[in-house]
Amino acid sequence: MARISGAQATVSVRRSSSPTARRPRPWLHIPAVAYLVLLTQVPFLYAIWLSLHSWNLLEPYLGKPFVGLHNFAFELFSDPTFWPALGHTAELVVGALAAALIAGTLLALLLDRPIPGRGILRLVALIPFLVTPSVNALIWKNLILSPSFGVVDWFLGTVLHLPPVAWLANLPLFSVVMMTAWQWTPFFMLVVLAGLQTVSDEIVEAGKVDGARPTQMFFRVVLPQLGKYYEVAILLGTIFIFQTFGKIFIATSGGPGIATTTLPYYTYQVAFQDWEVGQAAALGIFGVALAIVVARLMVQLFASQGEGETADALP
Amino acid sequence: MRSRRRWGMRAMATGGTYFAILLFVFPVLWMVVTGFKTERQAYTMPPLLWFRPTLAEFRLALASGFGTYLSHSVEASLVSTAIAVVLGVPAAYAMVFRMRAKQSNNLLFFVLSTRFMPFAAIIVPLYVIFTKLHLLDTIPALILVYTAMNLPLIIWMGRSYFMDVPAETLEAARLDGANLWQEMFRIAAPLSRSGLTASALLAIIFAWNDFFFAVNLTYTHSPTLPIMVSSFMSNENVFLAKVSGLGTLIVVVPVALGLYAQRHLVRGLSAGALK
Question: How far is Cα B7 from Cα B36, in angstroms, rounded to an integer?
Answer without folding.
Answer: 39
